[in-house]
Amino acid sequence: MYDAIRTSTRPKRRPLSFVLLALVSVVFVLLGACNAGNDDDSAAASAPADFDGPSAAADDSGERLARPEPAAEEAMEEAPMAMDDMDEAAAVDVDLAQDSGLAVPTALTPADLGRDIIYTAEIAVQADDVTAASREAVAIVQGLGGIVFAQTTQTEPRPRTAITFKVLPDDFSTALERLAGVGKLVDQSISSDDVTEIIVDLRSRIITAEASVERLRNFLQAATDLEDVAELERELLDRETTLERLRGQLRTLQNQVDLATITITITQSPTVLPDTGIMVTAWVSERADDPCLGVQNITVEPEARVYLCLEVENTGTSALTDVEVSTRNLRLNLDNFRPAQGTFSRIEPSELMAAVLELPIEEGRLAGRVATRGLPIELEVTATPIDFDGTALDEVWGESVVWVQVDTDDALPGFGDSVSDGASGVVAVFSVVLIVVGVLLPFLPIIAAIAALIWWIRRRNRKAESTAPPAT
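The structure assignment produced for this chain is given below.
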């Protein structure tokens, strides 16, 4: 009878249990949905858990332990960069900073946003004194509690220094604004990366990896078979390596979030030098009244006077000072130049200086050199430009050449010409003798051997003739 009562009442309780179970399930689903919609940290619960640990341990029947699943892969390769989730106000500030090229303060800090954000900036400035500007930049950052992370300096060919600073995110805007004032701001780039999702994912993977390592350690303590121990030790080493790598990635990201990075490049301000230039022209003439209307190639009598005109024009925008004249091939007394216009001491921009030098020709010679075949007069002029404040600039120079030839059609050669021609003939003969000696010098041993052989043969013949009996 008890069995009959039990079997008859069981169907009546079954619907009530199903109803209660359904109600409880609906309540949990609603609570989970609300919790997922309000909590930003639910990403940790939805993070991929591809690290499941060992699939099975040794069961009651004595089966061998199965190999655990592989550990989590590197988070940096899979975790997305969640820039789209960055707060709208911070995004507007970054865009303004990038568009204007100026140090624009950020409206919100990472603490205000509730996000993990990496702030970076690059600034390029120009300064007259790179060393002084570098010291000023370092003092500014150190005054804000920042540090110098790296520095590179070069002096040639143009002074330049690059300094990387680390500052607190709250001082990021202030540091940018002050660093931009150490010189002339020429370029600025500001960026921010939201790494909240990456950090959440890394933390989730670290928790999973730690649990897996702990389970493997427990399996290793319980293992008795040598093969199982060796396999578990290898797997434990791999899991521990992966765990340390994930921890290192998390530390790196956290350090970048905790300290913003600013790199400033300071270069020497370009110095715009004034234009400098010089143009040199020479003329030669037989007329003393206006030699600068002469020519650059003249033929004169053996006994004549020519007048050399030198014109120096300042084609730049800086005054020329210390104008000096020299010749390459003649010994002329250039101190005898008579200024016809301007002076050698100073030539203003766009001005022309002209000077005249009288050159006598005696017996067809100019400055001691024969001019019967044409003689060039090569003139070179150097000058020192000065800036508007009196600073000496790089030296400028110019050159010009004129030709003077003496007409010798009706003139007899003089004593000097004869001596010169005779000396030239002697030199020519001596040169030919030296050439012949140089050609025969390698053959001297052979010639000496042949001469010795001939002498020995002749001596032998003479000795034979002297000892031979007289013919009857």
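Interim note for the steering committee: Residues 2-38 form the longest helix (37 residues). The CA atoms of residues 365 and 371 lie 5 Å apart.
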